[in-house]
Amino acid sequence: QVQLVESGGGLVQAGGSLRLSCVASGRTSSTYATGWFRQAPGKEREFVAAISWFGGTTYNADSVKGRFTISRDNAKNTAFLQMNSLKPEDTAVYYCAAVHSTYFVPRTESEYVYWGQGTQVTVSS
Length: 125
Known about the structure:
mainly beta; 4-stranded antiparallel beta sheet; 11 strands; 0% helix
């Protein structure tokens, strides 16, 4: 089992930045891919970004390319989502997810096993 806890959300003006963190605990001795998803009010949860265990493979949704960067520090069991040039449409609850994997990096919700509780990001115009 892997437990995930997100932090770093908040209220920011359009054009601002936030850095989300996702700390893993439990069975962290195994390798796992990490993903970020988000869910806006009235919408389905959508993929944002994902990263492989060694960090050599990353994916970003088209809507966040050039603005968001995913990274990880395995020594600290932590993944990050640096969000720059935020827009009001980025407002959502952001979730961290993980699945045991060394090289494969899923981009769909159903492929992830472990989920955090989410952190709210609100971008005002």
